[in-house]
C-alpha cells in the first residue's frame, strides 16, 4: 500500500535585495497615511492624495519584473494595503478570492518576537481530520506569494513591538 501526494500548492519566497533602502523609500512616501483605529489602510480607502499602487510599483519594480520573468506571465497590482498590528491585534482567517496571487512583504518584523502569516491547507489531514497549517519562516524584507484562494491569517501580536506588513493582490494580465 502506498500513500502519495497528488497535489502541491506552489508558493514564492524572495528576500528583497537592498531592503533597508527600499523600506526607507516606501516609508518616506507613505508616512502621511492616516490609519484608522485598527491600523489598516488599503489602496481602496486612502483619503489622502497618495497613490499606494504607484509607490509600490516604483519601489518594488525589480521584484515585480523578476516575478514576471520567473512565472512567464505579466501581472498587474490589483490592490495594495499596509497593516500595522499592535500588541494583541490579529487578522482573522480569510482569503483573497479565486484568481491570482496574494503577497506579503514583511515591513517591520522581528523574527524573535513576531509570528509569520499562517496558511491553511484546503483539505484536512487524511488520518486525523485536523486542519493542516503552514507558516513559512520569514525575516523582515521577505516577500511571500501564495495563490489568492488559500485561507490564511495573522496570529495576534504578543509583543509590544508593532508588526507591519505590505499586502497586495496580483492578477494575471491576458
Walk me through the structure:
The structure is a single chain. This protein is an alpha+beta fold and 174 residues long. The chain has a single domain, classed as q2cbj1_9rhob like domain (Jelly Rolls). 18% of the residues lie in helices and 31% in strands. The protein has three helices and ten strands; from the N terminus they run E-H-E-H-H-E-E-E-E-E-E-E-E. It has helices spanning 19-30, 52-59, 61-71, and strands at residues 12-15, 40-42, 75-85, 91-94, 101-108, 118-120, 133-134, 142-147, 152-154, 163-172. The strands form two sheets. The chain has a six-stranded antiparallel β-sheet, covered by helices on one side. It has a four-stranded antiparallel β-sheet with strand order 4-9-6-7, with no helix packed on it.
Number of domains: 1
From the 3D coordinates, which CATH architecture would you assign? Sandwich
CATH class: Mainly Beta
Helical stretch tally: 3
Write down the Rg: 17 Å
- Overall geometry comes to globular
Q: How are the strands of the largest sheet arranged?
A: 1-8-5-10-3-2
CATH topology: Jelly Rolls
Q: Give the structural class.
A: alpha+beta
Low-confidence region ranges = none
Strand-residue proportion: 25-35%
Amino acid at each position: 500500500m502506498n500513500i502519495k501526494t497528488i497535489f502541491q500548492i506552489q508558493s514564492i519566497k524572495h528576500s528583497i535585495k537592498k531592503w533597508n533602502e527600499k523600506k526607507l523609500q516606501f516609508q518616506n512616501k507613505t508616512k502621511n497615511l492616516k490609519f484608522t483605529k485598527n491600523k489598516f489602510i488599503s489602496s481602496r480607502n486612502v483619503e489622502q492624495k497618495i497613490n499606494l499602487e504607484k509607490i509600490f510599483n516604483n519601489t518594488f519594480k525589480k521584484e515585480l519584473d523578476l516575478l514576471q520573468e520567473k512565472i512567464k506571465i505579466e501581472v498587474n497590482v490589483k490592490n495594495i494595503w499596509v497593516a500595522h498590528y499592535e500588541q494583541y491585534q490579529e487578522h482573522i482567517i480569510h482569503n483573497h478570492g479565486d484568481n491570482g496571487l496574494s503577497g506579503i512583504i514583511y515591513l517591520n518584523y522581528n523574527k524573535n518576537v513576531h509570528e509569520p502569516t499562517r496558511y491553511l491547507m484546503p483539505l484536512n489531514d487524511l488520518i486525523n481530520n485536523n486542519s493542516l497549517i503552514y507558516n513559512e519562516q520569514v525575516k523582515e524584507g521577505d516577500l511571500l506569494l501564495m495563490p489568492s484562494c488559500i485561507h490564511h491569517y495573522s496570529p495576534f501580536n504578543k509583543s509590544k513591538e508593532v508588526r507591519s506588513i505590505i499586502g497586495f493582490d496580483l492578477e494575471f494580465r491576458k
